[in-house]
Amino acid sequence: MAIPTVLRRLPAVLLLLAVAVGAGVLTTRAEFVSQERPVSVGAHEATLRPTFSGHVVINAGPLLPQLRLPADAPLGIGVRLDLGDSDAGDLDKVIARDAVIASQPQGEVERISSVVEGIWWRAVARGVGVTLLVLLAGVVAWRAIGPSRRRELASSVRSPSRSLVVGLSATALLAATGVVLVTAPQPGGSATPPGWSPIREEFPELPAGANLDRLEVSTGSATRSGKSLVEGAVRTYQESQEFYEKLTETAKDVTGLREPESGQTTAMVVTDRHDNIAMDPVVRELGRQVDAKLLIDLGDDTSNGASWEEFSINSLARIFRGYDVVAIAGNHDNGPMVPRLMKQRGFTVPDGEPVDVAGIRFIGQSDPRGSGLTKGYTGDESDNIDAVKQQDAALTKAACDDGKVSVAIVHSNASARKLGRSGCVDLVLSGHLHRQVGPDTVEGENGRSTTSLTTGTTGGAVYAFALGTGLRREAQTTVVTFEDGQPVGLQVVRIQPGGTIEPQDYVPLEPSSRDATRAARG
User: Fold this and answer.
1) Could you give the CA distance from residue 398 to residue 385 in angstroms, rounded to a whole number?
2) Domain match, 275 and 131 both
């Protein structure tokens, strides 16, 4: 009579499953909402707390209203971001930075989503573990009690004694208390939830055209006192978005770019972006027209190498997804954060030894100097001159010993002056000066020609800061054409603050350079 036995046990099995799944779900929820993570958002260090509010809530402190917008995530998952301090001491500058970053938010959104997703799956794993433990405990308890004792317990439940009623009631009370403790709101939110209103109702004079229809603002004194700051931020956001969207559209129709011939490949060069991620889609669009599949990054992607500037590297990784990327850090990319993040994002970061990327042999190394926001951008060798000379000598020796290097990448040409005269490489690419120098070709002692080019700032940066509603000065990128792994031509593209894009004449490299390279390689 196996079927009647199974049917008799089915309610107990279903009850155990319900209890186990319920415990797992409650554990998952409690684990998820109890977590917090330090993250960098815009110009701030921030604390991220996942929620089930269905919204992204941004709390910028007591002087500014809170902002929220729908998260559009499954299960009503949302997030609260409590913004902390910034390295910028001026509140207006902080807000301007945030507004410009908000105009190109995709890299930040992907990173925040990745953090929340990681927290979610760890919480789910914890919940599954609790579910399995409850099931195991239930099965063990069922077998340990045995059929005789189970019949006695069933009989007691049908005719419960006073002590049994008290015991069951106490057990139920303890279980209910545990549920309340598990599901209680976690610390970190506001003591009193704020009221919310569409931002256009609170600020009807905001400029038309901004993507603000879904954005809500908290109501209260912070909204009233921070009105002018919010309006300024939104205008900065809109102006930045309009300028760079128009510039990207211009890049789609620019004329004068040399397309590669059969058997040739191209690479895009960026340098001295200084956090101006809005230029990344522009360079990517120019790269699309020349069928580029390689990005060469010459450093100074940030202004100070601070952790909040991770968004700059994240933007490169997202916009140039599908590209091979070879990159070095500049003198303003202080500390280990930038090269470490580059490697985490899949970039090849040369460190003084030859490496092959996309069939091209490179040598390079991150800039040995470190600087703050006020020095290091002029190319003056007096800034840690010994370190620069030592780097030049080491790179020259490594390239000449190898004998097969095609391209050397350094942040400053001062790190490759000896290398450029050695004849041990075909091409030296550098940045740092924020202006173009070259291309210049010299013949080395071994008869092999080397061309050197310093590309101007891709971010349009003045000093070490590039964020704003438009370009602060002429921006540049360079298209490098390769054939059989050797550089055969250069084309600098100038991008003006007025929004025009001007490809310069294509410069073929000296034939003697390519011939000498092939002979050296045998």
Assistant:
1) 20
2) no
The answer to whether residue 422 is domain-embedded is yes
Is residue 137 assigned to a domain? yes
Q: Within this chain, do residues 349 and 466 fall inside the same structural domain, yes or no?
A: yes
Residue 190 lies inside a defined structural domain of this protein? no
Q: pLDDT (tens digit, 9 = 90+) per residue, 2-43?
A: 455 556 667 767 777 887 788 888 888 888 888 888 877 666
Residues 304 and 426 in one domain: yes
pLDDT tens per residue across span 306-326 = 777 788 898 899 899 999 999
pLDDT digit string, tens, across residues 397-438:
999 999 899 999 999 998 999 999 999 999 999 999 999 998
Residues 456, 332: one domain?
A: yes
In what helix (H) or strand (E) does residue 148 lie, and over which residues does it extend?
A: helix 106-158
Q: What value does the mean pLDDT of the chain take?
A: 78
**pTM above threshold 0.70:** no
Phi-psi region of 385 (alpha: psi -120 to 50; beta: other; left: phi over 0): alpha
Listed residues 155, 173, 203: the one ending a domain: 155
Is residue 185 in a domain? no
Q: Which positions ≥6 away from 173 have C-beta within 8 Å?
A: none
In order, the DSSP letters of 307-336 are GGGHHHHHHHHHHTTTSEEEE---TTS-SS
Non-local CB neighbours of 330 within 8 Å, separated by 6+ positions: 271, 272, 298, 299, 300, 301, 366, 367, 411, 431, 432
Which of these, 81, 102, 85, lies nearest to 37 by C-alpha position?
81
Strand stretches in 284-436, DSSP E:
294-297, 324-327, 355-357, 360-364, 407-409, 427-430
Q: Which residues contact 359 (CB under 8 A, 6 or more apart)?
A: 265, 482, 485
Cα Rg, the chain, nearest whole Å: 31
In the DSSP assignment, the letter for residue 290 is T
Query: Which pLDDT score, from 0 to 100, does residue 377 have?
Result: 40
Which residues on adjacent β-strands are paired with residue 159?
Answer: none
Asked if 104 contacts 316 with a C-beta cutoff of 8 angstroms, the reply is no
Domain of residue 344, CATH code: 3.60.21.10
For 341-396, write each residue's pLDDT tens digit: 999 999 999 999 999 999 999 999 999 876 443 344 444 455 567 888 889 999 99
- Tokens 């079927």 correspond to what residue? 3
Domain boundary among 155, 190, 225: 155
Residue 268 shares a structural domain with residue 150: no
Which residues, in sequence order, are bridge partners of residue 47?
Answer: 38, 82
